[in-house]
Amino acid sequence: MTIDQKKNFIINMMYFALIAGIVYIFIKHVLILVMPFIIGFLVALLLRPVIKLASNKFHVPNKIAAVALVLLSYAGVSSLVSWIGMRFVILIKNSIVRLPETYAIQIEPAIRDIFENVEKASAKLDPMMVQVIQDIAASVSQSTGSVITKISSTVIDFLSSSVSFLPGLFLGIIFAVISSLFFAIDYNKITAYLSNRLPAKNPGLFTEIKTMATGIGFKYVKAYAILMAVTFAELAIGLLLLGVDGAIEIAALIAVIDFLPVLGTGGVVIPWIFIELIQGNFPFALGLTALYLLITVVRNILEPKLIGEQLGLHPLIMLISMYVGVKIFGFVGLIALPVTIVVIKYLYDNDKIHMFKQEKSL
């Protein structure tokens, strides 16, 4: 390796480190601050074809169509998310509230029966063991009861304290709605203004960036729509085989929840499994566990593959970027880091950046 090659390598590495640092700072500290406005722009961008169609079909001004469709879109999504969230919270809270009663009626007698059977068997072999088993039974019963009570009170406190996050969330939604209205109403003016601020030597860059961003957004939505459909099919078939009443409706509800941040399928199925175990429905709980494991395995295989194919990345690269993104940035990183890698790849492939590329000699 020549001196010039070493210098180029060092410069490229410093350049890469600088980009990585900027990406880290943006995702970690800036993205959450501008997220309402990013959402606002994306909503306006996705609704733009519908706004044009509605304006032409119903012969109304573009601004009126934009306001109406943006408000209807947010109202519909908010109603659906609120309904799902309230159903989920009520289900979990009612189950936790009934947990001590369920323990007293079902779990404690079951524990007592188990130890009584063990005590009878031990008495035939060694009478000295009877007192030991009775002491253990009393200790286990007391400890389990206190744990159940603690879990119940802790979860209820958590659900109550989580209400404190609602004002910040509500404020973010308000800003997202307002920014969507501004973006949708004055979309052409805003995009033209941003395009004019770019260097004259590359006037088409903004259009190129917008096209790429739109393509990535639609591909992400398509990939996750396929994942949601697969999850729904698995849940519907599994719940029907388990003999659950209203299996199709429950599968649809969980599939929608699976699309939401943080919760996922486990946010519903795992508490459901514990409730069934507490109530002594062991075969049903085992069936739910097998169904959940199947859904988790299939999703972990399909998610990087589907999204990687849509975005033009190898599934292994997609899997690594999703894992690293979640570990470093939390849920935001699950989407932000793969998108960042796609953007860098796009810029690299189209000679917008020249990292690690050999300069052509004249």
As a percent range, the share of helical residues equals over 70%
Q: Any low-confidence stretches, pLDDT <50, length ≥5?
A: none
Mean pLDDT, to the nearest integer, reads 75
SSE string: HHHHHHHHHHHH
What is this structure's SSE topology?
Elements: H1 3-58, H2 62-97, H3 99-125, H4 128-161, H5 166-185, H6 187-196, H7 205-241, H8 247-259, H9 266-278, H10 282-311, H11 315-329, H12 331-349
Helix pairs in contact: 1-2, 1-5, 2-4, 2-5, 3-4, 7-8, 7-10, 9-10, 10-11, 11-12
Plain-language structure description:
By secondary structure, the protein is an all-alpha fold. It has a domain at 201-355. It has twelve helices and no strands. It has helices at 3-58, 62-97, 99-125, 128-161, 166-185, 187-196, 205-241, 247-259, 266-278, 282-311, 315-329, 331-349. It is globular, with a radius of gyration of 28 Å.
